[in-house]
Amino acid sequence: MSIMNTIKLHAAEYLWKLPKATFTDPQAADLSKQLVENGCCVIENFMSPEQVDTLVANAERAYQQFPDRVSLESNGADQRIYAVDHLDKSFLLTEELAVADRINAAFDRGSNKTWFQMIGKITYKEGNLGSGSGWHRDSPFTHQFKAILYLTDVTEENGPFEYIKGTHRKDSLKETAKFLGIETSQYRFSPDQIERLEASGIVPKRTTVTGKKGTLLMADVRGLHWGKPLRSGQRMAITRYFFPNGVPAHFSKLYPQAVL
Ligand SMILES: O=C(O)CCC(=O)C(=O)O
After folding, report:
1. Domains delineated in the chain
2. Is 144 in the pocket of ligand 1 (CB under 6 A)?
3. Which residue owns the Cα nearest ligand 1 atom 2?
4. Which residue among 40, 74, 116, 146 has the greatest number of ligand 1 atoms within 8 angstroms of its CB, and so is best to mutate?
5. pLDDT tens across 35-79, in order?
6. Cα atoms in the Cβ-side hemisphere of radius 13 Å centred on 243
7. C-alpha span between 254 and 44 (Å, rounded)
8. Which member of 48, 56, 159, 164 has the lowest number of beta carbons within 10 Å of its beta carbon?
9. Ligand 1: which atom is nearest the Cα of residue 237?
10. Atom of ligand 1 lying closest to residue 159 CA
11. Could you report the per-residue pLDDT of 222-257, keeping only the tens digit for each?
């Protein structure tokens, strides 16, 4: 591991180990514990089907209204509108996602809570890479928090989020890099690399988050994850991106609308 990567990893670990906020509310306390321990947690039936249907209708309207804001990803299968809440206030979801905000405040020690919403509609086509275009870590160094709300029922077929528990931890990150013979700064992984990691027991088997529309999942996306490539159908979801220190430059360069 290069000296620079060692320093970055240790700095992230120092921040991560600072005391976190605690919750008196048992649900938030449990979610926060799962997030720290496993890197991922799920709330089923988080939003009612009626509320989800309204969001889907609003999303379809946004795709019609703002075609120039649609980013095509995953070989053209994924239509994303980053910072859709900057275009249409019905996507702010301030009250609806308050629990994610509170958990993020503990996760990031209450630091600057910049966030925005991304609406993603990914449809099966041959060669789709899934949502997020393959296995990755959002950040190889800093811990990073994201909340994903499914707006369609999600099965094994239509691109569930998959996460490898524990891989958000420093020791796992180092072991993974050592096993694969790569730098800790590498943040994209091939399916074959992930399969080798799982087969060797260096990491546990992936967790597949299937669920009804209205399911909310929250993850430390420093851990290994992807949206599984679709075998059929379509998946729509809203993702809240949280940025502890403002929207990073590489992101705002690609998506200037993400900065208000
Ligand atoms: O939507 C998902 O299931 C994961 C997306 C993802 O990992 C990303 O966009 O970075």
Report:
1. 3-11+30-255 (2.60.120.620)
2. no
3. 227
4. 146
5. 999 999 999 999 999 999 999 999 999 999 999 999 999 999 999
6. 15
7. 33
8. 48
9. 1
10. 3
11. 999 999 999 999 999 999 998 877 888 888 888 887
